[in-house]
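>> received
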Amino acid sequence: LVALGAAVAGEALAAAFVLGLAVRAPGGGLRLGLSSPAPSWWLRVLGVELVVIAAGVAWAGLLSWQGLAPVSQEVAGAFDPGGDSVGLMAAAVLAVLLAPLFEEILFRGMVQSVGVARLGRTRGVVLTALVFGAMHLAEPMSVPPLIVLGLGAGWLREASGSLWPAVLLHVLNNGLAAALALAAGAAALAG
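>> returned
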């Protein structure tokens, strides 16, 4: 829980730092994309989440086939249903709500905005997804599916013109991961 809180605090400080520098993209201003998207984008988020889930399941299957665990015991322990309920709630709020918001503002709102302005849409989205994956190297087994998540979030951000579909995708993804970790912990306690 402490590590998760420190990671979110670090992301918030990084986001504040980049905003404080007032990075300017050509054409004036940093395009954070805080406008509301068209209603049709909310349904597209679900389609992208299905692709992200499929990539995650395929990766977990490959790891399992190799005898490797997709997440560390530390991450799984943050969602231990037999642990402290306050800690569990704090981990859920941090992982499911705050981390996605901070990470999407930082990566799709700031980094991708500058990357797309300087490198073009495709290269900017891909580079941002790779940097997003690299930021999670503390959990190396999760990096490939997180790059897929980053690509999906990047596409949603660029195609919709809004950051909010990417935030929702990230919230859904982290919520599903937290629910699965909680269910696995409950099964282990029952078994």
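>> Residues 76 and 181 are 6 Å apart (CA to CA).
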